[in-house]
Amino acid sequence: MAEDQETEQVPQKKKTESDDDKRRKKLVPGGLMKAVIRPGGGDSSPADGDQVIFHCTVRTLDGVVVESTRSGLGGNGTPTRHVLGKSKMILGLLEGIPTMQKGEIAMFKMKPELHYGEEDCPLSVSDSFPVDAELHFEIEMIDFSKVKVISEDLGVVKKVTDEGQGWESPREPYEVKAWISAKAGDEKLILSHTQGEPVCFTFGNSEVPKGLEMGIGTMSRGEKAVIYVSKHYLTKSPFMPMVDGLEEVHFEVELVHFIQVRDMLGDGRLIKRRVRDGRGDFPMDCPLHDSLLRVHYKGMLLNEGKTVFYDTRVDNDGQPLEFSSGEGLVPEGLEMCVRLMLPGEISLVTCPPDYAYDKFARPAIVPEGAHVQWEIELLGFEMPKDWEGFNFREIMADVEKIKGTGNRLFKEGKYELARAKYEKVLREFNHVHPQDDDEGKEFADTRNLLHLNVAACYLKMGECRKSIEACNKVLDGNPVHVKALYRRGMAYMSAGDFEEARNDFNKMMSIDKSSEPNAKAALLKLKQKEQEIERKARKQFKGLFDKRPGEIAEVGAIDKEEDEVSGENHESGDSKDLDGDNEEDHVAADAPPPRRSFFSHLWPTGRRVFRAIGVERCSIL
C-alpha cells in the first residue's frame, strides 16, 4: 500500500507568489479592523478579476475628513474604480474590499502601515496627507462585476450586460451601427443616442472617442455592454466633441450591426464590402481551400454612370458562373474576395486594374487600366473529393489532372498558382501507399517530378534557396538524379553560388554523357556570369587605388547597359528535356524579383487574404 501511495503522489507545481501576496505578509493582528455600518445584499463578494466601484471617505480618528470621493465632502462625486488583482491599492483595502457585499457600507480602521504609510507603498499622496496617523476609511460598495480589461493601464474596461451572437467583432475599416449613451463618472447623463437611428461610424476613422472604439472592437453583434473610459482615452471626435474636464465616461453600448469591410491588400486599393450576411461562421465556413464555386456577379466600371459590362443574370442566360478556385480562371481580385465570402453572402468589391483585367482577358467594353466594381453573390461551393477509397490508378489519374492544371498555370506565368497545385499533390502523397514495385516506381518518379516542378516555380519567383531545398528532396533519395542536379545548379547560379553550381554541372556529365550539351551550355553561361561580375567589379573600383596619398579616389561610373546582366537567357538550356518529359521540366528564372512571405506557401494570394482577416500566420491550408 505504501508503494502504491508513493506512486500516486504527483509533485505539485509551486504557485508563483504575487506582489500582493508578499504585501499581505505585512498584516498584523489589530492592524486592520472592520465595522459594518450598513449590511449589503446577496451572498457574493468580489474576487480577483472583478471590477469594484465604491465611494471612499477618509477621516482621522476624531472625525476630521481628510479626503473623499463624495461631492458633499469635498470630492467630485465620481466613485473610485479598481480591478482586483490588477489595480494598485493600499494594503488595507486590498484585504478589506473582498469581504464586502454589494450595497454594504463599512468602516475600516487602519494602522499607518496598512494605508499610505506602508513601506514601499505603490500609491502616493500629497505631502499634507497624514501618512503616519491611524485613520478610518468609510467604504460604500456600489457595485462589482466581472470585466474585460481592454487597455493594460485599465483606462478602458468593459462590462458585458448581454452576450452577443457569434465571435466576429468590428475592426478597421468596418462600418458600425450602435445605440450609445454616455454618462460621467457621477452618473450624470452627457448624451444619449438610443432612439431614432443608431449611431453609424467607420471603424478606425476617429469618428468616436478612442477608448469607446477600443471597447466596441471587442464586442460581437447584438452584445450590450458598459465601457468605462478614463480621460486619457477620451479623444475629441465628431460623435463627442466636448471632452474637456471629464475624468471618466461610462458608455452604455448596444452593438446593433456592423458591415464587414476588408482592405484585401492593405493599401486601400482592393476593398470588399459585405452587403448581405451569409450563412455560417466567418472564416471557418468560407471557401478558403481550392473549391468549385458558384457565383452570380455583375461587373461595373467606376465611371459616373456605373456602366455594366457583364451580368451573369443577363449575359449568361441567368446561369451562375462556375469555376474552380486556385486555377487562374477569374481575375485575381475577384477570387481573393470570393474566398472570404460565406454562402448566401453578397459583397461589393472595388478592384484596381492590376487585380482586375490588366492581367486577365479584358471584356471589350472595359478600357485598359480601368478600376472596376463587382457585385458578387456566392451561391455555394463544393470541396474537391479526397482520395479516400480511391485505388492507386484512380489516384494517379487525379494527380495527372492536377499536374496538368499546374503546367498550364506555369506556362501562363502564374507561378504561385502552379506551385500551389504541385504542393497540394505532394501533401496528399503523404497518405498514399503503393502496393507493389511497379506502383512504387511510378509513385517515386511522379513525386520527384513534382518536387522539381516546385523548384522551377520557386526559381521563377526568385526564391533560389527554396528552389535548392526542393531539388535536395529529390537528391536525398537519388543523388545521381540528373535533372535535379541541373535544376539545383541553375538555382545555385542564380543565387551567386558559382562553385556549387559548377560542381552540379560537372557531376551531371560524369553520370550521364547524354547530358553533356546541356551541362556544357550551363557551364558556359556560368563562366559568362562570373566574367560579367568580375568586369563590373573592376569597373566599379577603377582608379580607387591609383591616387596619391591624401587624394580622394572616385568610384568609376557604370554604364547603364553594363549594370544589367549581359545577354543572359536562362531558358536556353533549362527548357531542354533531360529525361524525356518536356511538359513538366519547367524553365529556370531570370533575375530574382522581391521575395515572397510565408503565406505564399499556403495558397497563392493567401498572404494578402489572411492579412485582410487579421491573421498574420496560418497553417490551415
Give the quaternary arrangement of the chains: single chain
Uncertain residue ranges:
1-7, 552-604, 615-621
Q: How many individual helices?
A: 15
What is the total tally of β strands?
A: 20
Rounded to the nearest angstrom, the distance between the terminal CA atoms is 52 Å
Structural class: alpha+beta
Shape field: elongated
Radius of gyration: 35 Å
Per DSSP, what share of the residues sits in E-state strands of 2 or more residues? Answer: 15-25%
State the helical fraction.
Answer: 25-40%
Major sheet summary line: 7 strands, antiparallel
Report the mean per-residue pLDDT as an integer.
87
Write the layout of secondary structure elements.
Blueprint: H1 2-8, H2 19-24, E1 32-38, E2 50-60, E3 65-68, E4 80-83, H3 91-96, E5 105-110, E6 135-146, E7 148-149, E8 156-162, E9 175-184, E10 189-193, E11 199-202, H4 210-216, E12 224-230, E13 248-259, E14 261-263, E15 271-276, E16 292-301, E17 308-311, H5 312-315, E18 321-324, H6 332-338, E19 346-351, E20 372-382, H7 392-411, H8 415-428, H9 437-460, H10 464-475, H11 482-495, H12 498-511, H13 516-540, H14 571-574, H15 606-612
Helix pairs in contact: 7-8, 7-9, 8-9, 9-10, 9-11, 10-11, 11-12, 12-13
